[in-house]
Amino acid sequence: MSKKLHAVISGGGIGGLATAAAMAQRGWDVTVYERQDALRAVGAGIYIWENGLRVLEALGAYEEATAGAFRGTHFEQRDNLGQVIESARIEESKRLLTVPRSALLDALKNACLRAGVKVETRAEVIGATAKGELLFANNQSVQADLAIGVDGVWSRVRSSLGLELLHEQTREGALRTMIPAQPGDFGPEDTGKYIECWNGDRRFLITPVSEKETYLALTCPHDDERGRSIPVDKALWAEAFPQWKHLIDRIGAAPVNWGVYSITRCTAWSAGRAAILGDAAHAQPPNLGQGGGMAMQNGLSLAVHLQGLTDRRDIPDALERWERKERELTEHCQRWAILYGEVTYLPDEIRTRVMRNAMSDPWLAGQVFRAANHSPTGTTD
User: Fold this and answer.
1) In sequence order, which ranges of 77-129 are alpha helices (DSSP H)?
2) Which candidate, 26, 233, 239, 287, has a CA 20 to 30 Å from the CA of 373?
């Protein structure tokens, strides 16, 4: 019996754990190295569209990840006057679930453990080599057949391999938090919906994630000092979105995090026997809710392309085939996520007309939801 090939992964987030589980399930010996002292979700809630749900099913993590999840019937945009711009019904055949990030991370962690993945915490990776090696801040290193960087927008693996083509921050960022859900939060016209409200260059996204919690994202330019302040300037946001004052007033029970959106593009997704994926390779603004979904589906696809290999010399060719298969769709999703964010800076009346016409156009909707409607490599129709 041939010896298992060994992969080492930098990053114990959503993309890293999905990749680790998928590879271990296909016969690889996998070790994940995480900088923090524990595997911990950063953020509040997360959207998982049909493509991401298919990946979770393939990994055996679906039931745990989605237990108690919210499934909305509509995604609705509203203008600065609180009037509906567009209310798009979510097709039954195209699922969209929202969950706490911690629930998704726990489900992926457990899928990893069932598959035999080893996890090392307090391990700060500062680089990688094309020979399948990870380098650590304590001057140690680990040699494997394949090194994978899933270490976020500030990826040290990407930088050390010389793969970075573009890394820039957008003008926008968001305050993210969870609030406890209460009876009466939503009237009959609001129930069962994901609601995105616009006012000037500020946005307010309301996302139930369970019967007990609602995820809020308060979006504004990074130079909007009052808008981005922590503690949250509740009076400012309630003035902009008075219909939702009762939710805004509840902010504070859970941590509030501010983050500016990032975009990354690379010359390639691999070098020799080292690869990158997720935000390290293709970070995008969260406007389409696909950051986690694309990381998971590209991680599963990577495992599929590496399945059955017995000779490390075959890894570079497999990595190139994987990139050719997945990069076009990934960058399509990234482009449209960027474009969606640019609408923020239109005057209110113009933005309303643009959004109403755009979201009702079948071709444009097809571009926006192309990734969500995709059947990822390694999943079944």
Assistant:
1) 101-115
2) 26
Those residues with Cβ within 8 angstroms of residue 256's Cβ, 6 or more apart along the chain or in another chain: 175, 176, 177, 230, 231, 232
- In this structure, the chain runs to a length of 381
pLDDT in tens, 4-55: 999 999 999 999 999 999 999 999 999 999 999 999 887 799 999 999 999 9
Domain ranges of the chain: 6-65+98-168+264-340
> Angle 291-306/50-59 helices, nearest 10 degrees?
40
Single-letter amino acid, residue 145: D
Task: Kindly state the tokens that stand for 113.
Answer: 């453990």
* Cα end-to-end span (Å), the chain: 33
CA atoms of 332 and 310, how far apart (whole Å): 33
- Describe the strand order of the beta sheet including 202-208 as a list of residue ranges: 84-89, 74-78, 193-199, 202-208, 213-221, 164-180, 257-266
Q: Which residue, among 260, 63, 59, has the nearest Cα to 168 in the 3D structure? A: 260
* pTM > 0.90: yes
Q: Which amino acid is at 133?
A: E
Place of tokens 């680089």: 127
The phi and psi torsions of 56 (rounded to 5 degrees) equal -60, -40
CB of 118 closer than 8 Å to CB of 112: no
The CATH homologous superfamily for domain 6-65+98-168+264-340 is FAD/NAD(P)-binding domain (3.50.50.60)
Measured CA to CA in angstroms, residue 22 lies from 85, 113, 115, 259 at distances of: 41, 12, 9, 29
- Beta-strand pair 202-208/193-199: antiparallel
